[in-house]
Amino acid sequence: MKTIESVESFDEFISGSEIAIVLFATRDCATCKPVELKLEKHFSDYKLTKVYLDDLKILAGRLSIFNVPVVSIFFQSKELYRFIRVFSMDEIAEKLKRLKEFV
């Protein structure tokens, strides 16, 4: 999974396609790596990226992210869904399915 390293790259990523999935993590997060692997396995047909909030604290403030891992689904550059700490890949799949019905 590609890692975003600047705010500009993040803005370009979420605006570059209709549906984008972003994993917000920290480098010392023990559960973030398994979540990353599951996202890659289940949602490889979507645009996926991760952001280390250690490096981009400004995004944590801008998006009001206080815990990790966080998975956000962006649609047309707007955050539609956010999954925080405890969630399943099925929950994410359900929201993506619903979103694709309207696209």
**Strand portion:** 25-35%
What can be said about the biggest beta sheet? Answer: 5 strands, mixed
Number of helices: 4
Q: Helix fraction?
A: 25-40%
Shape descriptor: globular
* Strand count: 5
Distance between the termini: 25 Å
Question: What key phrases describe this protein's structure?
Answer:
single chain, 103 residues, alpha/beta, five-stranded mixed sheet, 4 helices, 5 strands, globular
Could you characterize what this model shows?
With 103 residues, this protein is an alpha/beta fold. It has 4 helices and 5 strands; from the N terminus they run βαβαβαββα. It has helices spanning 7-15, 32-42, 57-63, 89-102, and strands spanning 2-4, 19-25, 47-52, 70-75, 78-84. A hairpin with a 2-residue loop joins strand 4 (70-75) and strand 5.
List the helices and strands and how they pair.
Layout: E1 2-4, H1 7-15, E2 19-25, H2 32-42, E3 47-52, H3 57-63, E4 70-75, E5 78-84, H4 89-102
Parallel strand pairs: 1-3, 2-3
Antiparallel strand pairs: 2-4, 4-5
What does this entry show, briefly?
This protein has 103 residues and is α/β, with parallel strands linked by helices. The chain has helices at residues 7-15, 32-42, 57-63, 89-102; strands at residues 2-4, 19-25, 47-52, 70-75, 78-84.
